[in-house]
Amino acid sequence: MAxxxxxxxxxxxxxxxxARITGAPRGPELWVGAVIASGLPDLDLVLEWLGLRxxxxxxxxxxxxxxxxxxxxxxxxxxxxxxxxxxRRVALAWWAALIAHPIxxxxxxxxxxGERGYGIGIFWPIHGRRWISQRPIIDQTTEWGSCRSVRxxxxxxxxxxxxxxxxxxxxxxxxxxx
Length: 178
Fold this sequence. Notes:
Blueprint: H1 4-22, H2 28-39, H3 46-49, H4 65-81, H5 88-107, H6 111-115, H7 150-177
Helix pairs in contact: 1-2, 1-5, 1-7, 2-5, 4-5
C-alpha cells in the first residue's frame, strides 16, 4: 500500500503528463494542487479518528473511480458555470493526480494485505469487490499508524522511494523538456 510520499510522486507525474497534453501552465499552483489532490482519497482516515476502524472504512468509497469520476463531472460543470481563478487545464491535471491515487493503491496492494481485507473498492457502490494486485509493484505491508520510530517509517518508505522516484522524475522531466 502506497504512502503519502508515493501518492505525491505519482500524482505529480500524472499531473505533469496531463499538463503537457493540455498545455496547462506549469506554475506552483499546478504542482501544489497535484500533491494535495493526490492525497485527498485518504481523507477517509478521518473515520478512524472518529473511532470507526477496519479495512471496510478505509479505501472504499473515497477510492472509487466511479465516485471520483462523478465528482470530476460535477467539478467540470461547476467550472463551466462559475468563473474560477484557476486555469481549467490545471484543474484537469489535478483530477489526474486524484485518479492516480486509487490506481496506485491497487498496484501496491498484494495478496497479503488482500487477505486482511485491505483491497481497494474502485467500483464502489456498483460492485463491492476490493481489488488487489497478484504481483504488486511494491510488496510491503507497512502499517504507518504503528510505526514507532523514524527508522520504521524510513524502512517502509525506502522501497517506494527507490522504485517510484526515478520513474516519476523521468516522466516529469520529459514533460518539461518536450
